[in-house]
Amino acid sequence: MSKKKNWPLWEVFIRSKAGLSHRHAGSLHAADAEMALEMARDVYTRRNEGVSIWVMESNNIMASDPEDKESLFEPASDKIYRHPTFYDLPDEVKHM
Amino acid sequence: MAEKDLEKIFQDKVDAEIKIEPKDWMPDDYRKTLVRQISQHAHSEIVGMLPEANWITRAPSLKRKVALLAKIQDEAGHGLYLYSATETLGVERDDTIEDLHAGKAKYSSIFNYPTLTWADIGAVGWLVDGAAIMNQVPLCRCSFGPYSRAMVRVCKEESFHQRQGFSIMLAMANGTAEQKRMAQDAIDRWWWPSLMMFGPNDADSAHSAQSMKWKIKRFSNDELRQRFLDMTVAQCHLLGCEVPDPDLKFNEETGHWEMGPIDWDEFWNVVKGRGKCNRQRLRDRKGAYDEGEWVREAAMAYADKKQLRKKASQAA
Ligand SMILES: [Fe+2]
Ligand SMILES: [Fe+2]
To answer: Best interface-test mutation with B: which of A2, A11, A16, A48 has the largest number of B CBs within 10 A?
Structure first.
């Protein structure tokens, strides 16, 4: 492990055009948020890939553990009544 | 869960084309292989800027200069995407760079050849980036998510690199007698090293079988080399230049070009550090890193100071 104090890691999110949400584009190292923003512009938007950038220090992201996948997401799979196709309606009902 | 079961779940996912993400369980050797391959790929992008940077200030026109600058800037970006991908595997970027500087990690041997004339910049874009694209396109489907995503970005950007190179070659090949001679000379020197970029012949390739099983690799070295050969011979003829391979012949039955034997002694010599520019490249890389140290430190100190000031003003 390196003993030097590295610039922290930042995650970069880019809105590719008005109307769409920001999407994870990648990460980079920068001394602070302003620098991260400037570098994100150079690294991830050299070809009109975006109209807006968010940067966030990677340390601040809390991620779910892949081991918890079942307990987190499995309960949703047997709740078919959450989907419109669960409800049988007579054919006469249009546009619903 | 037992290691054996975890390995089976892992391989089943890979077989089903489900991507492996950084926090998923993976075999130790899979992780090690990826760290080695992705960090060496990153080093190649960065070291690869050096032979081209040699010509930025001497580009023959402003148009060629901005194109070359943009290409080299892309390569810096490629290095960055790839270092980020290694970091998802829990490796510090500075450690991989230290390995490079200590001679423990490799980069693509092609960058140990010198760029002697402007035609070399054409040949590098056309042949070297061309071979890199051939290698990188299948990597977009690599089983490791961050590597595959980085490759998708890289491949989108690469096609301009090869086209700007070929466009330089076209101008030279259709130029004066002296320019034509330079174009042919650049092809003579870059042709074989570019074919070597695909690595040893399949029979001598140490890591291939395992990497194929893990779907890090999709095609064998010789398969990719053959594809590159078939495409590139035609392009070379289009330039009106000669392929520097006396044994080259077209096989009517298979519809493929067949090349003469590669000089693997030359390849291994360069890999082992005895190429024309190995020492210069490493010295330049290390120099740039060491000389930039105070800048990185100063930026960090300034960021810390700004942070403190902000806190103080909030407290007041
Ligand atoms: Fe590249
Ligand atoms: Fe490139």
So the answer is: A2
